[in-house]
Write a structure and sequence with these properties.
Elements lengths: L1 E9 L3 H20 L4 E12 L3 E11 L6 H4 L5 E11 L2 E12 L43 E10 L12 H4 L3 E5 L34 H4 L4 E11 L5 H25 L1 H4 L4 H19 L1
Parallel strand pairs: 1-7
Antiparallel strand pairs: 1-8, 2-3, 3-4, 4-5, 5-6, 6-8
């Protein structure tokens, strides 16, 4: 099991990012679906929690076949996706169950795999996050190695200086804390877009940007996404390699997604909740036939 905490600062308020996050996820997913991959929304419905209050439950299929490295494609089905279940009680969210599924023939056995499910992360709950209770560990096919991703997220209006925000020391022990800089940390070259580079972007509507060296120390407003990410792959000989690879992918996704949320700010800063809902529904409807 490999646990890392990522802290990603943004020149936004948490209230602004609430809209920006939803807009960015919808637009990015639509762009990926144009390539035959991306995120397929299975469920998106209100959810009430006795502690966290009103929130939103989503179940998504993240199609990944072409994004796997060659060594992973050799042992996974031809059509591969991850099922994600998440509970959003903004500014606190839980991604409490991640399953990998596939269809097609595999290199290991050459047998049809109509549906593969790995276990979710064991439902041992943080004392302040009862909403993840009852998330089952499910085993339906012994072929797929034991794999899970668990992400706990909190958003705060600060520059990433809140320590032990997840109260995780007694549960998870020491873990690496990594600050991700949306302006100056490198992303894979194939994902680079000059229009999405915070070093050069200037918002016409908000007047924010471009971001200069040391921007986190003097930029106002500023917020931080704190993400505690646990990756688990219990297969001897592959565990370290797979867990490190998955964290690398997650790091890239976090950087790219937060860069886009900021550099697309002029597209979403004036969007009302009703317009955002209609936008999400429209893009989800357009993506489903391409990913089904």
């Amino acid at each position: 099991m490999l646990v890392k905490e990522y802290r990603i600062c943004m020149p936004l308020t948490t209230e602004e990012y609430r809209v920006g996050q939803l807009y960015t996820i919808s637009k990015h997913s639509h762009q990926e679906s144009e390539k035959g991959e991306g995120v397929e929304v299975v469920k998106n419905e209100p959810h009430e929690d006795p502690v966290h209050g009103s929130g939103q439950f989503t179940e998504k299929r993240v199609h990944l076949s072409s994004k796997l490295p060659s060594w992973a494609r050799a042992v996974t089905p031809r059509i591969f996706y991850i099922t994600e279940k998440a509970w959003n009680y903004y500014p606190y969210t839980i991604t409490g169950e991640t399953r990998a599924r596939g269809r097609g023939r595999t290199a290991l056995r050459g047998q049809p795999c109509p549906g593969l499910t790995s276990p979710s992360f064991p439902p041992r709950c943080h004392p302040v996050m009862p909403a993840c209770r009852g998330v089952p560990a499910e085993y339906t096919c012994s072929f797929l190695p034991k794999f899970s991703i668990y992400i706990e997220t909190k958003y705060e209006d600060n520059c990433g200086d809140s320590e032990n925000i997840f109260r995780s020391d007694k549960i998870l022990g020491d873990h690496e804390v990594s600050f991700l800089d949306i302006a100056f940390d490198e992303i894979p070259e194939r994902y680079y877009r000059s229009l999405e580079d915070p070093r050069f972007f200037s918002s016409a509507k908000t007047g924010r940007g471009p971001l200069r060296e040391g921007w986190r120390q003097h930029t106002k407003p500023i917020m931080c996404s704190y993400k505690l990410v646990t990756v688990k792959f219990e297969v001897w000989g592959l565990q370290t390699r797979v867990e490190q690879f998955v964290h690398k992918v997650i790091r890239d996704i976090l950087l790219i997604g937060h860069r886009q949320a900021f550099t697309w700010v002029d597209e979403w800063c004036d969007v009302s909740p009703g317009e955002l809902c209609a936008f999400e529904t429209q893009l989800q409807a357009a993506a489903s036939p391409k990913l089904g």
